[in-house]
Amino acid sequence: MAALFTHGARIPLRREGFPSVLETVHCRKDGCLEIRARSRPQVLIKAAGKEPAEVETTAINGANQLVKSTIGKSTNIVWHECPVGKPERQKLLRQKGCVIWITGLSGSGKSTLACALSRELHCRGKLTYVLDGDNIRHGLNRDLSFKAEDRVENIRRIGEVAKLFADAGVICIASLISPYREDRDACRALLPENNFIEVFMNIPLEICEARDPKGLYKLARSGKIKGFTGIDDPYEPPINCEIEIQLRDGLCASPSAMADKVVMYLAEKGFLEA
Known about the structure:
Blueprint: E1 3-6, E2 9-12, E3 24-27, E4 32-36, E5 43-46, E6 58-60, E7 66-68, H1 86-93, E8 98-104, H2 110-123, E9 128-132, H3 133-136, H4 148-167, E10 171-175, H5 181-188, E11 196-202, H6 205-211, H7 216-221, E12 243-246, H8 255-268
Parallel strand pairs: 8-10, 8-11, 9-10, 11-12
Antiparallel strand pairs: 1-2, 3-4, 4-5, 6-7
């Protein structure tokens, strides 16, 4: 919206901070816009001058209460409840939505487990979706690099998408290195208690590097890749993960054995029924 008429004159408005959901907008003689939304308290947004206007922003939460918006840069937003909720979707699917977050070093078997688990659950008539770290960077996160702040944003976005899948009643399998404990914990906090299942691929670095399926360790050792997890950037292992996959007698478990371990956990916790 570029401008509004008021008292015969055009007043330019800044796009930033202008409400996206309105009932009515009234122009006042003092140059402010008076926003009236369903008889709730009014919000005043000044017309733009040469200097950025100080805008008091508000949002409406799911309980239909007027609250200050402190999340990100989105302002004046409304949470719309749908009459069909997670319980109804879970009943339809005969399962409970959750997020299975598989974390570990590159080459530890995360994608292998994700695919084997998805196949096993599919054979049991359960709906899953795999969010693979590399695949997501082909689309949703293609604008992100591997610098520290972009890695944080990469995990945040995937966590939000995984939350939506879980809310839809889907068993979402997220497979990505996610090296920092704080980022994983932030994703856990997005979901209801016990709906985030952290699976730690506890495979030693030397085995992961010996596998090196993508040739990334070789590039990192030669200095062609900087900030590679496990080489010149740390991996912070989970402290209290729900499931840990590790060597047994020096050997790695088969994909089906790893998948069975996760499926057993899901069954015990009631995720495979609604």
